[in-house]
Amino acid sequence: MPTKDGRPDKARLDRVVAEARRNREAREKTYREQALKLFPWVCGRCGREFAGARVKELTVHHRDHDHDNNPPDGSNWELLCIYCHENEHARELDAAGRSAESRPQDAPATHKPFADLAERLKRKG
């Protein structure tokens, strides 16, 4: 809800974001703990094993990408290390069929480093 001067209520937005993060963390904690009990602590892609403090590097990947689909048998999960998990999501984006036209394009270069090259060569020679 905006303030009297029309600007967004920053305190309210901060509360909403904090609550959403708490809810997400609580949900993740629940299914992560279940997945760690069900599966060996091994990355499903690269095969690295995790133990002790390094278990925090092991994440739960939802095969159908629906973080609310958490069957108790773990059939929608796989444990991936943080690197393989990131790679998996990057591959998903690439496989989504985004054409070159749909990707954001960088602005074309405007600097022309050789614009006065002929003049410089004349002066040098």
Helix content: 40-55%
Kindly name the structural category.
Answer: mainly alpha
- Integer average pLDDT: 83
Total number of β-strand segments? 2
Task: Outline the structure in words.
This protein is mainly α. It has one domain. It has three helices and two strands; from the N terminus they run αββαα. It has helices at 10-38, 82-95, 117-124, and strands spanning 58-62, 77-81. The chain has a two-stranded antiparallel ribbon with strand order 1-2. The N and C termini lie far apart (70 Å). The model has no long low-confidence stretch (mean pLDDT 83).
Write the layout of secondary structure elements.
Elements: H1 10-38, E1 58-62, E2 77-81, H2 82-95, H3 117-124
Antiparallel strand pairs: 1-2
Concise account of the structure shown:
This protein is mainly alpha-helical and 125 residues long. 41% of the residues lie in helices and 8% in strands. The chain has a two-stranded antiparallel ribbon.
Task: For the structure shown, list the relevant keywords.
3 helices, single chain, two-stranded antiparallel sheet, 125 residues, flat, mainly alpha, 2 strands
